[in-house]
Design a protein that fits this description.
This protein is an alpha+beta fold. The protein has one domain (2-65). The protein is built from two helices and four strands. It is elongated, with a radius of gyration of 14 Å.
């Protein structure tokens, strides 16, 4: 079993969050995969961004505001 650090991007509305997770790889079955804890953290960040709860989202991830670049 090997673990690799990975940054998952979560996009909701005008925000994007970088959530640090670990990908677990095994020699058998479907891999790589997330731990249940990391999957719940991603879901919690996504839900917080949907609610506009930036305080909770920033405790779990790095949050950025997306701005449109006009041409």
């Amino acid at each position: 079993m090997t673990k690799k650090a990975y940054t998952k991007l979560v996009h909701e509305g005008q925000y994007v969050a970088e959530v640090d997770v670990e990908l677990v790889s095994l020699d058998e079955g479907w891999s790589p995969y997330l731990s249940l804890e990391d999957a719940y953290r991603i879901d919690e960040v996504r839900d917080a961004l949907r609610r506009g709860d930036l305080l909770t989202a920033t405790k779990l991830a790095r949050v950025y505001t997306l701005t449109r670049v006009s041409a």
